[in-house]
Amino acid sequence: MATDVEVPALGESITEGTLAQWLKKPGEAVAADEPIASLETDKVSVEVPSPIAGVLTEQLAAEGDTVAVGAVIARIDQSATAGAAPSVPKADAAAAAATTNPAGAGETPALRGDTTAPVAEAEHGDDDQITTLSPAVRRAVLEYHVDPTRIRGTGKDGRLTKDDVIAAAQGKAAPAAPPAPQAKAPAAPAAPAPQARAPLATGERKEERVKMSRMRQTIARRLKEAQNTAAMLTTFNDVDMSAVIDARTRYKDLFEKKHGIRLGFMGFFVKACALAAKDVPSVNASLEGPEGNQEIVYHDYLDVSVAVSAPKGLVVPVVRNADALSFAEIEKTIADYGKRAKEGTLTADDMAGGTFTISNGGVFGSLLSTPIINPPQSAVLGMHRIEERPVVKDGQIVARPMMYLALSYDHRLIDGREAVTFLVRVKEAIEDPTRLLIDL
Q1: What pLDDT is attached to residue 123?
Q2: N or C, fewer C-beta in 10 Å, the chain?
Q3: Identical topology for domains 2-114 and 216-438
Q4: Which of 362, 273, 364, 283 is nearest to 319 (CA)?
């Protein structure tokens, strides 16, 4: 008897998603709770697990289709045998017919949806190897456009891992071992030499069209809304990172030994923002309601949205009650979000809410930027790279590790004096971390 596989709940206020990728093919065996498909929503990617162990017998939606929460997208049969002839979904009928066309004999059908031809070639480079890839590795192959048959696996028994795929995409992976030499067939009569082809024209230009993902469209819409709605302004300052760098150098080993996590810069900045928000609460407030009837909502807690780069775009998971967390709790939470962002396992609940945002463009080498507010928040702090610059200390020109800070804020809610005061409070706490301990 077949069991329906339904689209699971995707998060608060999210009613539909896009079927981004099938992780299992019809006729393949699946275990209970094993992911069989990946859905993309406005905020996150969600894997659809199999409710039972059995064989995937039907796919009722195609990659790229929009599916509603609760919709049936597949069927799993407990009594079926793996490898049985699968039922071809209606959406694939045309593709199935195309493979029987003599004019296209020998060609590999491209993947459906918004994947590109190079990805399709990589995915189908070796059918035996592809079917043994884990869902995470398959997804990485699609995202990074690499051929898994050309990568040497470092996992158990030489299996391919997600890190192998990422390393190959960055050009750091060892190439796969060359195939064993085949026995030579008897020499055939020499064929006439082919006529030389004319060389390809130099300067050939190509274009590639890829459908914009739901997540990317949502990011674009929200950022444009922020620019169109908020009276956005940015104020700048610089901060001497000497004290924080010294503290990390002195205590990083003890910190990691005790808490099992590295001591980073973000914990200091989250704590500094929490301290500054007590003096300037409007920076941690939001403006809500229709134009002409708006209210200012002040928060007595600090939920920090931390901008994290993911393969499909920028995401902002929330560190909740950051003002009450320890350094170790903040660092562990951010590290976990960073790992899950790369794996594509963040949930909509992870990114819901947030009263203030911190974006660290310095990890990519940014010297200075003007970050955009994440509505309905009223401010965002931008961190940048640390570099030694000449500064004057006690009448002497000395080299110090300096970082530029940028605070973008909604001028409808925050005055310039308040924005500058907030940034100065952050600067003071970073240059003298003792203030974080004695609440100054």
Answers
A1: 37
A2: N
A3: no
A4: 273
Catalytic residue positions?
411, 415
- Give 328's contacts (C-beta < 8 A, 6+ positions apart): 255, 258, 259, 261
SS3 assignment, position 204? coil
Output the pTM of the full model.
0.61
Instruction: With CA atoms as reference, report the closest residue to 239 among 41, 76, 382, 25.
Output: 382
Report the candidate in 113, 87, 110, 114 with the shortest Cα–Cα distance to residue 99.
110
Query: Is the domain 216-438 a CATH 3.20.10.10 member?
Result: no
User: Are the beta carbons of 405 and 231 closer than 8 angstroms?
Assistant: no
Q: Give the residue extent of every domain in the chain.
A: 2-114, 216-438
Looking at residue 312, the DSSP 8-state letter turns out to be T
> What tens digit of pLDDT does each residue of 295-313 get?
999 999 999 999 887 776 6
What CATH number should be reported for the domain whose range is 2-114? Answer: 2.40.50.100
How do residues 75-105 score in pLDDT, each as one tens digit?
Answer: 898 876 665 545 544 444 444 444 444 434 3
| 151: phi then psi, degrees, rounded to nearest 5 | -115, 140
Residue 48 vs residues 7, 8, 15, 37, 156: alpha-carbon distances, Å: 7, 7, 15, 5, 26
Asked if residue 173 has pLDDT above 60, the reply is no
